[in-house]
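Quick one: structure tokens for this chain, please?
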Amino acid sequence: VQLVESGGGLVQPGGSLRLSCTASGSIFSIKSMAWYRQAPGKQRDMAAWISSGGPTYYVDSVKGRFTISRDNAKNTVYLQMNSLKPEDTGIYYCNMIGDKVFWGQGTQVTVSS
């Protein structure tokens, strides 16, 4: 099983991006999906999380700007990012927890004028 991410890129401050992550194979009983991010020189931290039942969690710095959603039929998780700031710059990784823990390869998001 591989997690394939897409949607990263360069955007100006205040702009938007939508990240997608799809599992290429079958993951048994996905319990949760999440997006983590790693800024240059910093550790990887969770940005947003969604459970199988729908409840979500956001780190304070992205609340009101990011929205996580999932399509269970497609084994896909999305991250809509609005009002992007330079401090949102980093590598974004998707994460899925089922019978095992799965990680994507990461996609670069750069917010700069």
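The CA atoms of residues 14 and 84 lie 5 Å apart.
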